[in-house]
Design brief:
The strands form 2 sheets. This protein has an 8-stranded parallel beta sheet with strand order 3-10-9-8-7-6-5-4. By secondary structure, it is of the alpha/beta class. It has a single domain, classed as TIM Barrel, CATH 3.20.20.70. The protein has helices spanning 2-6, 11-21, 24-30, 38-49, 86-89, 93-104, 118-124, 139-151, 170-175, 185-191, 195-202, 222-232, 239-249, 261-269, 291-302, 317-325, 335-366; strands at residues 67-69, 72-74, 78-80, 109-110, 130-133, 156-160, 252-258, 274-277, 307-310, 330-333. The chain is built from 17 helices and 10 strands. The termini are far apart.
């Protein structure tokens, strides 16, 4: 496997292997956006439009990408984003991703809609991880999730704010996305070509939503989970709920899904420790701006009053470098590590992180910088990056 991994020189390589190895419905779940997918594509193309300013004959030795995110030391300004159904891309996927993140030196964020549970991650890792909370109509269940995250010594709570209603993703509907896959002829035919995935799934007990089944009222098996989740995302979620969550949690609070300057200002007032400029990877409101275009406006509104991070569309170390140059204090990656996980498990996640680290390190050197904390707009070509109004 090591020889195969060394041939993976970019995230696109991992993506190709992932597409070959996992069931179509789960690959499409990762590799898709909502509606026309215009925002999904803009997330990456708008990064590509930004050009780096090359500097030469500067001392490139002693480089470091180390920094902090909400006071936590990180090897590079990257955290693994919360992604639902991760354990369907590879058996025990959340555990493997969390282990890879811990070994590498970046934070891991567990989704409410994970296959492995909060307790599974706590039992299989030693570094504190973050927990992402979806606010459900069942507030007692939500409070229980917070208590479980506290018991697991999670070091931050990430509240996703942009999933009060679900954006339509055409391929998920056409594929009949379900966990686990329904025993249809179409699914059986596809699974017959994914024997490695099938064998791994047969050898794990974790095949449904570990944080929900057996924990939420009335959800005792996979037959009841679909109707429960369809009813539970709460369109009434408001900033008043954030105040209650902050009081219940009592620790570091991150709000994910901010795209508007006014919402960023409200997040500051709500007492968040960080916000994530995110459009859910282009999977919610299609025709929303790319995150890299939204970033300058949000930074202009909040200044240094809060840590501002960015996700959606990050596939390379240069993407991370450009986000930092424009003022982000950190980033989160989703699809990039999921491709690695689906392709090669824990080793694949580690390879994805190595790829991003090396790309960022070398690109930073070519811009004449040796410390990520000194990177700013000076490394960008004027006129190629978005500006605040």
């Amino acid at each position: 496997m090591q020889n195969q991994l060394t041939k993976m020189t970019c995230i696109k390589d991992l993506r190709q292997v992932a597409k070959r190895k996992i069931p179509k419905m789960f690959y499409d779940y990762v590799d898709t956006g909502s509606w026309t997918e215009s925002t999904y594509h803009a997330n990456s193309t708008d990064f590509q439009a930004i050009k780096l300013r090359q500097r030469v004959l500067t001392d490139m030795t002693g480089r470091t990408l180390a920094t902090t995110m909400i006071g936590q030391q990180v090897k590079m300004p990257v955290a693994l984003a919360p992604t639902g159904l991760t354990g369907m891309l590879h058996a025990d996927g959340e555990i493997l991703a969390a282990r890879a993140a811990e070994k590498f030196g970046v934070p891991y964020t567990l989704s409410t809609m994970s296959i492995c549970s909060i307790e599974d991650i706590a039992e299989n890792t030693s570094a504190p991880f973050w927990f992402q909370l979806y606010v459900m109509r069942d507030r007692d269940f939500m409070r229980a999730l917070i208590r479980r995250a506290q018991a697991a010594n999670c070091s931050a709570l990430v509240v996703t704010a942009d999933l009060q209603v679900l954006g339509q993703r055409h391929r998920d509907i056409k594929n009949g996305l379900s966990v686990p896959p329904k025993p249809t002829l179409r699914n059986w035919l596809n699974l017959a070509t994914k024997l490695e995935w099938c064998l791994a799934m047969l050898n794990t007990r974790r095949r449904t939503f570990g944080n929900i089944v057996g924990q939420a009222n009335g959800v005792t098996d996979t037959t009841s989970i679909s109707s429960w989740t369809a009813e539970q995302f709460d369109p009434r979620l408001s900033w008043n709920d954030i105040a209650e969550i902050k009081e219940l949690w009592g620790g570091k609070l991150i709000i994910k899904g901010i795209l508007d300057a006014e919402d960023a200002e409200l997040a500051v007032k709500a007492g968040a420790d960080a916000i994530v400029v995110s459009n859910h990877g282009g999977r919610q409101l299609d025709s929303a701006p790319s995150t890299i275009r939204a970033l300058p406006h949000i930074l202009s509104a909040v200044g240094n009053g809060i840590e501002v991070w960015l996700d959606s569309g990050i596939y390379t170390g240069q993407d991370v470098l450009k986000a930092i140059a424009l003022g982000a204090k950190g980033t989160m990656i989703g699809r990039a590590f999921l491709y690695g996980l689906a392709a090669y498990g824990e080793d694949g996640v580690k390879r994805a992180l190595d790829i991003i680290y090396n790309e960022m390190d070398i690109s930073m050197a070519f811009t004449g910088k040796t410390d990520i904390k000194t990177v700013n707009k000076d490394i960008l070509i004027p006129g190629t990056y978005p500006l605040a109004n």
